[in-house]
Amino acid sequence: MSYAAGKPVAEEVPVPLQVKQLAAECGVGLDTVRHDARLGLLAPERHPGNGYKLFDARDAERLAFVKRASPLGFTLAEVKEILDRSAAGRSPCPMVRETFGRRLKENRARLERELLGQRRMEKAFADWQNMEDGAPDGHSVCRLIDSVAIGEAAPAKRKRR
Description:
161 residues, mainly alpha, two-stranded antiparallel sheet, elongated
């Protein structure tokens, strides 16, 4: 059973719910519900008379799970895989551990690169406090930046996502 704000979700959600009602019950925006449904994170039924999407308590539980997993760094594709494994009766825990462990390692490396860049910036800034301003002389654009050795001030390049 899932919990949202400390209360069991399945016991709190009246069913069936339209998009607006599910969004209000779960504290998310309408676009979030629609987007998650398009990605297959939610499995609404269609109202036979008007075609509206109708959600149930299981969808509310899944949406609450997405809200818990996202701040931990799981992508929506990863969350879908976790939900799919669980729905198929297979434990997603090994995949979660592996994915999270890899993400922790990547995050640590990124933080170390950022920290190195921060230290380089602080050193350059401290050095610049006692340097005189210099006028461009045809060889120097800005004396402050030109005083830093190439590669010394710039943090490692980031990967594009």
